[in-house]
Amino acid sequence: MADIAMQLHIEADADTVYEAISTAEGIHSWFTTTATAGQGVDGVHELGFPGVPEPWRLRVTEAEAGKLLVLAGENGPWTGTVQTYEVLPHSEGGVTLRFTHSGFPAVDDAYRDFTYGWATKFVQLKAYAETGEPAPFFTC
Question: What are the phi and psi torsion angles at 79 (to 5°)?
Fold first, then answer.
């Protein structure tokens, strides 16, 4: 199994970053404009993307407001993978977002595409959390 692991410093408070990753309004503001986000454990996130016929579903398996969100992929290419978002205090202010997308069956082209994809999407997340200005990567 292969994992994607990255982290970034965001000049925003933990609640702002957590809301950006855990609520539909937040997800619409940096990732995709077609998203729903069920709250709390067993909530379901559905993410729509241009040219993809069915939303990708993720189930919340752990949630601690302002600190931790864990999502398990239920369909599409993320089936069987787990996304873990940890929001940690940063020593110089703001937070560190530590992200792991685990459980990929191989380091193949899809894995490489998702690695690059997450890096580009987190640029959008950082900008949104720091400025409050929505700039979704996907509009559909």
Answer: -55, 130
